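INFO  loader      accepted 1 record
INFO  loader      residues=537
INFO  predictor   begin
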Amino acid sequence: AIKIAIPIAIDFPVAAMAGSSGGPRGWALAGSIAAPLVVVAFLVAPSLGPSGLLPAIDAAAALRAGTPGGGAAPDQAMLISQGLAQVLDALDAKLQKRLDARLAAQPAGQTQAVGRGGAGSDEAIALKLDTLMQRVDSIASLLAKVDGSEKRHSDEDLRPESPPPSPPPPPPLSPPSHKSRSHKSKGKSSDDGATGIGDALVLPPNPSGCDSDSVPAPKEYCGKQGKSCFDSWEKDYMERHAAQIKKGLAAIRAPGCFPHGASVSTMGYFRTGSTLMYNIARVWGALGADGSLVGGYTCKNPVELGMGISGSDQERCSMICKDHVFHTDLAKNSHVVLMTRRDPFYSVCSRKLMDVWCNLDQTGRKEKAEWPELNAYKKKCKESPELERPETMKQCKALMKMQADIYFEREVMGKTIAFDMLTEDYENDPHGNVQNIAKAMGICDEAASDSALVAFIVAMGVELKKHPDHDMGITQMHDVHTEEQRQAKCSNLNAWMSEDEDCKAWMDGHALAESNSELQRLRKDPIARKEMIKKKR
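INFO  predictor   done
INFO  writer      dumping tokens
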């Protein structure tokens, strides 16, 4: 842990200081970067091992090599955020395995207490990781400001610059404001339970009767500690277009329209657009239930939170969350599961650009490889088509398995996926997909098809792409890769993926679950079904 913590604690702050030319701002940036990374290194480095944190340290060294006072180069800033993203993926998976094992080993009477994050449980560690991920998002934003770059986008955001028209046309809107997501709007409340966004807009009362702050969800979730699930740009938009959205707000806030007490999990294998799906669902949820809604990254078991449980204080509170795997009992208890998928080439290419690539397979080794061997293999693999070709196929199969596991776990629990959105379809018809997501969540047709509300959410997506680094604690946004990067680094991937029969079928099937051979194998395997049921019990 010390070996790993020291270079992380030194290289990242030094790189930050170099990019900011020192001064109070540089020291503040250095401190914000060092603290969470040192915590991570000492908390989980011993179980993760050198190979897991190698990308972060490589990124730190590369960034530190930049010219002091000259600012971080764009590719260096990208490298540091990519390295952190890979570390977080690995940490999240390991922490979840540890947590699941702890819960499975608990006697029946103690499982609930541990699952709620009892003292000394691994759930507490998982919550620490939630906090860390919020801090790393902030780091990425700060690095962008140090570099002076305004061209940061979400990799899961392939939305058009301007939404294409879709019938029926939205009502005419007032001239757009030049205010960004950094704009702050003050709220207000009235005696009848209505809540205010600004001087021009008062939301109809929330009929749920539930207080989101009472939900035992992570404090980083929106809806906790008085934090709205609307970001500041959205509040500003709603105030400026109060007259246009008034009818739709009345519809979604009417009793029986929004499914109060429901939990909505937005899922997807890595790099598919699940962040886009999450934000669409989040805004729909906030329109219907802000004040009784919680939401954020890492989905929690809604039963543990009291949602939908008759007689609990949180019975009519709701949750919108984002994740890539089902945690304990989530596949069974989540009321609605939304999925995203994407042309597999783009997902695999994104993994390569993040450097989640060419890691030495140490299966069966008694002694783990040291840094020189890990570095040497990664370098050799990237330069050798004989090694990179099977690596490409392995990455494709790993993403297929992620999708298959989500579908299979949900099916074994007797549940379905409410809506599975192809990200490329959203590009062609954002308005239609926004409506479909609302209907899949259980929102009434009158609100789901309201042209002003739909136009608002589509506009949110466009603004999100322009300013992905604003209000990241609410939006969960992160970087995008450019077409130039793909052409430079991924030109061979499509052909290599097509050489694998299963991967090619998945690609040709537009990543549909029905074209996923791994899912078909699980469905036909009675042992896999029995093991899944046993695991979930």
